[in-house]
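Weekly puzzle thread! Below is a chain. First person to post its structure in C-alpha cell form gets bragging rights.
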Amino acid sequence: MVDSKEIDIVLLVSDLSGYTALTEAHGNVSAAKVVNRYTKIAEEALYEGTRLIERVGDEIIIAGADATDIIKTALKLVHKIEEEPFFPTVHAGIHAGKVLEQEGHYYGSALNIASRVASHAQGCQILCTKVVAEMVGEMQDIKFRAIGEINFKNIFEPVALFEIITDCRKLEMNVLDPVCRMLISPESAPAHLTFKDNNYYFCSFECAQKFASQPKLFIKNN
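Winning reply:
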C-alpha cells in the first residue's frame, strides 16, 4: 500500500523564460546544459527548510513549510541567475495550500495554482497569491505590489496576485536576443545587426545568421 498524507505546504514553481526558443535556436544539447546549470543554481539558492522536489524540463518545483523562506529562495534564485552571463531569465510563482504527499511527490490544486501563477509571470518576475502575501505580512526586506485578480484556465475562482519586488536590473541593463530569447549585454554581444533603423544584438553568430535570413519572422515573434 502506498503511504500518502495531506499536508500544508508552500510551493515555488520556477521556469526559464524563452526556453522553447533557446532549444530551437541552439539545439537539445545546449538546452540541456542550460537546464543542468539552472538546476544547480536552484539548489544553491535553497534556504534552510526548503527543498527542490521535482524538475520537469525547465520547470523546477521547490517546497517548504515557511512562506518567508520560500520567497527568499525565489529572490536568491533570481539574483543568482542575474549574475550568469549569456543565460535566460527566470519567472516564478508561489502559492500555499494543502497537497497530497505520496512517495515524495505532491498532488493537488495548490500545485496547479502555483504552476498557473508562474506561467503568468514575466522574465525576472516573481508572483505570489494573496494567501502567501498574508502569511509573510509586512517585512522590511520583502515588498509586494498588488497585481489584481486573474482568471486561470480550469481554476474556478479568480486568484488575487501580488508581485514580489526583486530589484532585478538585468532587464534594464541588457537586451533580448530576438532569436533564442537570451538576455545579453550590448557591450559584450558577439554579433550585432541593424534592421529598419533598429539595433539587434545576438548571443552568437549563429543567431545573427538566422535573424538575417528571416528578420520579419523573429521581429513578429517578439
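Puzzle host: Confirmed. Bonus trivia for everyone else. The CA atoms of residues 16 and 90 lie 4 Å apart.
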